[in-house]
Amino acid sequence: MKYFLTAIIANFFLINFTLAADVNITADNRVEWHQKTQKVVAKGNAVATRDDMSINSNTLTGYYSQDTKTGKTKINRVVADGNVKMHTSRADAFGNNLDYNLQKDEAVLVGSPAKITTDKEIITAKNKITYYPSEQKAVALGDVQATDKDGNKIYSDKMIAYFIKENEKSSNLIIDKVDVFGNVKITTPDTTVTSDKGSYYPREGKAYLFNNVIINQEGNLLRGEKAETDFNTGISKLLSSSKGKVKGVFKEKDDKNK
After folding, report:
1. pTM (2 d.p.)
2. Residue 229's domain spans which residues?
3. Structurally, how many domains does the chain consist of?
4. For residue 186, which of 139, 225, 141, 235 has the smallest C-alpha distance?
5. Most buried by CB count within 10 Å: which residue of 54, 137, 140, 156?
């Protein structure tokens, strides 16, 4: 549980997506070159590949421009429509539409739901998952659910992940913080915690939840305004706040041996 959510979004979107050259585009039906509108359209099981990345969809459109100084052609937007599958060496993504606009500095994955998987985690969002490269931030919207390989889950209406460099010498990015808002719920094999909002710190392996917090552990209920969940130990606890005392209801268990 220690690394829950630390790589799920980063491993998918944090790739070299300049697509300036060395892009191979194939399609079962046809590939069209529209010189006047400066775009390339591939139709019918269209596939674009570059290094260890590939995008597969029903239709794939690449929009390009020409540098007036160097004369080089540069793709500045890629749109994949229908049965979108994106693969990298670190993650896979699935959706109905992928729109990566370098000019707007955003990559938007839309699906029913949008889905990203790694060998450790799965994240889904009913509305969309958007990554902002220059801000090193990703936003998932609509019935967001993140699940790790042990079956632990985080639910929310909105999830925002913030990235930092792994270290000074590395260009790899890792998640530094995840904020969750609306109908927040964390489930582990024996505990369910709900709240209005919260923050998760993957490097610490801890989540802090705020407002209308309820911890349900095998029928025992704790209510308060602030809680801490430690994914390393599996322990959740309520913390005192200025709004009032912690309240608990403990379920009496039957002892059949009596």
Report:
1. 0.80
2. 102-251
3. 1
4. 235
5. 140
